[in-house]
Amino acid sequence: MCGILGICGFEDVSHELVSGLVAIQHRGQDSAGVLTYNDGRFHLHKGSGHVSQVFKKFDISKLCGNVGLAHVRYATIGSTEAMDAQPFAVNYPFGIAMVHNGNVINFVRLREVLNNQYHRMIETDNDVELLLYTFATYLQEKNLEQVGVEDLFETVEFVQEHVRGAYSCLTYIKGMGFLAFTDPYGIRPLIMGKRETEKGTQYIFTSETVVFDYLGYEYVRDLEAGEAVFIDSDNQVHSRILKHQKPAFCVFEYIYFAREDSVFKGRLVATERVRMGKALKARVEAAGVKPDIIIDVPNSAYFFASGLAEKMEVPYRRALAKNPFVGRSFITPSDELRKRVVRQKLNPIRDIVNGRKIAVVDDSIVRGTTSRHIVNLLKEYGAREVYFISASPAVKFPCIYGIDMSVKKELIAAGKTPEQVAEKLNCEKVIYQSVEGLRELYKDLPICDACFSGEYPTGITQEILDQIEDEKMKSDRC
Ligand code: SF4
């Protein structure tokens, strides 16, 4: 999972790109990068670590230009090293730079085609190379003297036909303009905004609307599944829905990944989480559980827990003190490191926990490492009974679209009943939302729920699942 940002317009964009990346830092902490274009040249700075580390000693004014792309990366596959950091660029045709968020699933086939048929060297494991080279390879076969908007849209359509998986991409093509596009299912978010300046409208595209709040842009719209938007060198906006399938927006954005103050498809993430929390009441009652208090796993579960508490009329308490200076455990490399991070991060508040029956609510239970650790801590601090409640259904299937859940055997719920999971977590009960319950909440918004249901919107074969799992096992995150 990554965060992307691109701005094109009339003012210098470098400082805005770096500040905007800070707003979406939660989407990836492995690397950060910014590329701008000015006077016939790309200017690029990228490296490993948080935005503040990567740009700490760098003179941002070197990244001059009124157009640029920016990226924060969480490496689900490949290395966490600087060479895999985005943006990427090629110098032919024209000079094309690109950032993307998502995961390409037919990467083995694409690498073969690009290597053997087009003699392009693939230098990294980063999917953006596959997208960028596929795009550049098709575009270079056009009459380059006369390339226009139609040619660019045809090129995007070619990419959408040949590159399978989830991707939201931002591209700058030297001398032509700025291009944003999504995969045919619109799995990953991509949102357009604008700001009026004295010289004209400055456009912005990013993964989360919170960037608009930070930088003072106005929301325009979410891109549709399969859509491309092109801003030409005269600042004219062209848009077209190209290869389009039944949309399947990743519901995990609402559940966990996005910031609570972001909005997707007109729905504020915080409000969605309260709604999901309230919907858990029926599940808790059906399980015959009567907690003394409801607590959350900070921070992403607050809205679920408070929604459930309100609906059940059971007191909500914050019972786990969080050290905000320790990173997110879910996006920290390796299981061992994750365990250590959780220990440093959460500490129970003894008087709230002691002697009580506690319903602890989290957004999801993925590997179970954090959940088990929390249960043990609560019991150590005197909890009488612990019920672990997941606002999402059981994660039983790998995510092949760019969230770090691509290895089935790592998923604690895969092939297990809730009772077996409760035993593993050492708690009295595990209660999940059901797949039907989640779908009922999103009956008017087509979502991807493949990690819960096993129904992959793009379709999938066992061969591709195995390839993705193999690639993940070779990556820095295992
Ligand atoms: S499989 Fe799950 S995490 Fe992956 S895109 Fe679909 S809903 Fe999101």
Describe this protein's structure.
This protein is of the alpha+beta class. Helices cover 31% and strands 26% of the residues. The chain contains 17 helices and 24 strands. The strands form six sheets. Strands 3-2-4-1-10-9-11 form a seven-stranded antiparallel β-sheet. Helix 3 (107-117) packs across helix 4 and helix 4 crosses helix 5 (149-162). 53% of the residues are buried. Bound molecules: iron/sulfur cluster. Iron/sulfur cluster binds at residues 187, 250-252, 399, 401, 403, 448-451.
Percent helix among the residues?
A: 25-40%
- The overall strand count is 24
CATH homolog superfamily of the largest domain: Aminohydrolase, N-terminal nucleophile (Ntn) domain
Strand content: 25-35%
Rg (C-alpha, Å): 23 Å
Give the tally of structural domains. Answer: 2
Number of helices: 17
Quote the distance from N terminus to C terminus.
16 Å
The CATH architecture of the largest domain is 4-Layer Sandwich
Largest sheet: 7 strands, antiparallel
Which stretches of 5+ consecutive residues score pLDDT under 50? none
Shape: globular
| Average predicted local confidence, pLDDT | 93
Structural class: alpha+beta
The ligands found in this model are: iron/sulfur cluster
Strand order of the largest sheet: 3-2-4-1-10-9-11
CATH T-level fold name of the largest domain: Glutamine Phosphoribosylpyrophosphate, subunit 1, domain 1
**Which CATH class of the largest domain applies here?**
Alpha Beta
